Amino acid sequence: MPKRLVLCITGASGAIYAKHFLETALDLDLKVDCIVSDNAKGVISYELGIPFEDFKSRFIPLGVRFHDAKNFFSPLASGSYLKRWVEAIVVLPCSVGTLGAVAGGVINNLIHRVCDAAIKEEVKLIMAIREMPLNAIHLENMLKLQRLGVKAFPISPAFYSKPKTLDELVNFTVGKIFDLLGIEHNLYKRWKGI
């Protein structure tokens, strides 16, 4: 069985990032498991203008496996399962609440557990923080996780590719995440100098 990616969607604003990540992963023939927090379900409905169940129903036929964020019996709750079968965990968008819980070792849901297990099993973990401005606690939490090998960063699109649409801005961030995963893509124009 090929290794899979796990996408964790939290209640931070930025559901469009998760949508583009899933679409790109599927276009690249990658296998994806998805955990969506209860707050994220509401954000998805509000920001994307569709009920969460419609969002989920769009991706299930394409092979995305959804896991309930309250289900600690999911195989994703097992560190040994992650170590053997998961290439990387991506938290996108990542709320500062999830950032703080993971940095503090607090496990209130499956997203927290997956991140905690990824750290202990040294499975690649990427946390794309969607908050602005960041306070000292957020920055300290990112630094703490970075020192543990986590890639934790605020979502920050660039403009050197002269984006003309919202999708182009979103794809820059999603593309940077695929860069961190070492997966080839054509989501944005790379800087070639002047």
Structural summary, described in words:
This protein is an alpha/beta fold and 194 residues long. It has one domain (4-181): Flavin prenyltransferase-like (Rossmann fold), CATH 3.40.50. The protein is 45% helix and 18% strand. It has 8 helices and 6 strands; from the N terminus they run E-H-E-H-H-E-H-E-H-H-E-H-E-H. The chain has helices at residues 15-27, 38-48, 52-59, 79-85, 96-103, 110-121, 136-147, 166-181; strands spanning 4-9, 32-36, 65-68, 86-94, 124-129, 151-154. A 6-stranded parallel sheet has the order 3-2-1-4-5-6, with helices on both faces. Helix 7 (136-147) links the parallel strand 5 (124-129) and strand 6. The radius of gyration is 16 Å and the shape is globular.
**General form:** globular
What's the total number of strands? 6
Classified in CATH, the superfamily is Flavin prenyltransferase-like
* Largest β-sheet summary: 6 strands, parallel
Strand adjacency order, main sheet:
3-2-1-4-5-6
**SS-derived structural category:** alpha/beta
**What is the tally of helical segments?**
8
The Rg value, from CA coordinates, equals 16 Å
Strand content: 15-25%
**What is the architecture at the second tier of CATH?**
3-Layer(aba) Sandwich
How do you describe this structure in short?
The chain is of the alpha/beta class.
